[in-house]
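re: that complex we talked abt at group meeting.

here r the seqs, copy pasted straight from the sheet so there may be weird spacing, ignore it
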Amino acid sequence: MAFSYSDLFVIAPEIILTALALVVIFVELAWPRCEAALQAICAVGILLAGAAAAISLGVQTTAGFGSASFLNGMVAADGFSVFLKVILATIALLIVLISRSYFSNAPNQPTENIGEQKSASLVSRLRHSDYYSLILLTTVGMMVLASATDLVALFIGLETMSVGLYCLAGIRFERVRSSESALKYLLLGAFASAFLLFGIALIYGATNGATNFKAIVDALQGSFSSGISLLEPAPAMKGTPLLLAGIGFLLIGLLFKIAAVPFHFWSPDVYQGAPTPVTAFMSAGPKAAALAVFIRLFGWVLPGLSTVWAPMLWLIAALTMTVGNIIALAQTDVKRMLAYSSIAHAGYLLLAILAAGNPQVREAAAAGMLFYLTIYYLMNIGAFAVVYIINRARENSDYQIGDYYGLAAKQPWVAGVLALCLISLAGIPPTAGFFSKLYVFSAAVKAGYIGLVVIAVLNSVVSVYYYLRLVVYMYMRPLEKPLAARLTPTTAVALMICTIGILGLGLLPGGLMKQAQTGAAQIELPVPTVE
Amino acid sequence: MVGLNWYLVLSALLFCIGAAGVLTRRNAIIIFMSIELMLNAANLALVAFGRFIPNVTGQALVFFVMAVAAAEVAVGLAIIVTIFKHKESVDIDKVNLMKW
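got the structure back, here u go
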């Protein structure tokens, strides 16, 4: 296999972001206290990476590479992965835009957790560049994960993302909550990674040495056309029980990363304890990346086994939606409420994975998922950004719902953005949240999961209660405590992007959906070029 | 001759010991050790499969896993140290400010 420049084109976004992550560290070393410049460098670099992703797709289609494989079939260069890379770059951009004020002047700020013991040795020594480079490297991990077409790339992308997120969750290490959240995330995340790796090992053995997705497909077709039944052990440990066990372990690892219900216990605690901009990042990026590889794996590699995994996933999807929404009803802490709401949204997104098990509708399902993920990060980052602004203005240790009483009178713009995000999360038209649910649910109906769609719709109705409760408090209750929220210009820009996205795509969803359909129609499994 | 099955049984046993350790022990460092045991169980399975198939991808993947595990340990121990500075303990039952 010759290494060619087209290989570099395919991973250009990752290369740019990795280089940028190193550059920002040196920039801060050379010019300390240049926070605005650092933020600007990151924003420009991320924009470049997003553009590089789009251009690489353009170059391929014009040069007619078609289904050529790059980097020995490790990563896909199809429209689907490019779409996701653009999503992930935008997420990173929004997070960079909202985070500067969180970390500037940190030591002078009254600590978020008043009354918690603070060890003298834990004075904040945070450098902004640490934070930015972690965000960038985590994004690289997510991009690798989203475009992985090989179990090796999947594992490395997932771990790059996870290790970065453990650091990010604990980045305010002088605060006990941040450290606790990092520890919980680390222990449970590493536990799940071990399951995932064991699953990879079993699949590798069961498919006679295949780690590439295409090679796995070929191996599976070989064993199934020769008539080995799912329950009969095949000769020489290449048989299906081993494969099924491997898929089960892999499924556990992936479900953990998207916080589906039996594996969701980490998520509310981690979301609550982590710094709010990091929570916004965690709720948007990893979910998108993990779901991308999930749908590629289960819709394009393992659809032949859907009789085995679909019932299991059906149950998990139903549980995830229901448990997430019901517990969210009882939350009085806004950050925890949004954490449970994001669990419920993972349940809706699992519908797309289920629908992708049916080869006739898998492209519609993948397109619906891409659309959903785009809207989802806009809504979630917008909501968490406002939560962060209010919390900072209140100087509270927690995120109680009482802080939001009468917000609309004092801060009409901020309250308006939060209300829009919440209405969109609830899925009420004309916001984009409505169309994202519509596309995913209609794909699931086409695939024949009518019962599950009914459950999902009922769940959406339940979720309206807790989303709108907050809106009602903001608009109908009198202001209890004075409030002086300040918007930095960059945060305002980020909120504006979210608002325009939610409203614009709610009124004109067609353009994005067309892009998503083109992307989904191009999902490819490149073949390895060397044996 | 030691066949593939022996390695797989050993690997499965190691994995179960690790999982049991994670679920039952309360000391963060011991939990972390148990997770490493699980990762090594997977490594053993990969190497064994790679030797018997025969195919080198499994052994190559093990190198990646080792590197990843080292990164995870570096981050993990740092997090455990900060928890110890806050709590004077690494008992995970004391990590309880947030509850579902």
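couple things i noticed - Chain A touches chain B through 47 residues (CB under 8 Å). The two ends of chain A are 10 Å apart (CA to CA).
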